[in-house]
Design a protein that fits this description.
8-stranded mixed sheet; alpha/beta; 11 strands; 2 domains; 28% helix; membrane; 225 residues
Length: 225
């Protein structure tokens, strides 16, 4: 039998030679390395070409400008293009900082604006004084301020601070807590109440009986000298 061939069929292409494949692989590797070197060079160049030229701090009173800048992680050795709020985590977590806002201003300025907490009360316990704001956050290094909170029994200092806040317009000087209630001394008189709710509802009695001791009970109000 005679063999016949299909002239329209193509012979399969020969696979690339091993040497050719190796050359292509090397070219691809060198191209990747060159691209990486160029990117690193551009990044380093941008770091030094656009440094932080100035740092402006506003809103600080207790913390120094230098301390705020350090907590924000910004200095003139840092690249301006690469600086971001992610560097300021320590500033946002500092007990004295209520809020912080950071802006980058072209070319090379970083503005750091802070709102600091305000000392609101001094808690006295076991011979130790701790200054807090009216939310109860401890403020290290703050000078003692009125009202002075102290007491005995289970710790009710958080409630005592709330009591001081409720009567803040009456210039509260001290709050003493006990298991049975709170004694609030103001510039206009003294109040005792067994609960914050009663204090909130009838606390204005201190203005009606200036210089007196007002005791607030669930069933009424007692006024004494």
């Amino acid at each position: 039998m005679a063999l016949t061939t299909d002239e329209g069929a193509r012979a399969p292409e020969a696979a690339p030679e091993p040497v050719e494949r190796e050359k292509r692989s090397r070219r691809s590797l060198w191209l990747s390395l060159l691209t990486l070197v160029l990117l690193v060079g551009l990044g380093v160049g941008a770091w030094y070409a656009f440094p932080v030229r100035s740092v402006r701090v506003t809103g600080n009173h207790f913390l120094s400008a230098g301390r705020v800048a350090a907590l924000a992680g910004v200095s003139k050795t840092f690249g301006w293009l690469y600086y971001g709020a992610w560097r300021a985590r320590a500033l946002e977590e500092h007990p004295w900082v209520l809020r912080a806002n950071i802006r980058k201003v072209w070319p090379g300025t970083v503005q750091v604006s802070v709102t600091e907490r305000t000392p609101g009360a001094t808690i006295q316990h076991d011979g130790r004084s701790v200054v807090v704001d009216l939310d109860g956050t401890e403020l290290p290094g703050a000078k003692p301020v009125a009202p002075f909170v102290r007491g005995w029994g289970p710790d009710r200092s958080r409630e005592a601070i709330d009591a001081a806040r409720l009567l803040g317009r009456f210039d509260v000087r001290s709050v003493i807590y006990t298991p049975s209630g709170f004694t609030v001394e103001t510039s206009r008189g003294t109040l005792w109440s067994g609960s914050l709710l009663s204090l909130q509802k009838y606390g204005s009695g201190v203005t009606m009986y200036a210089g007196k001791r007002v005791s607030i009970y669930p069933w009424g109000v007692s006024v004494g000298e």
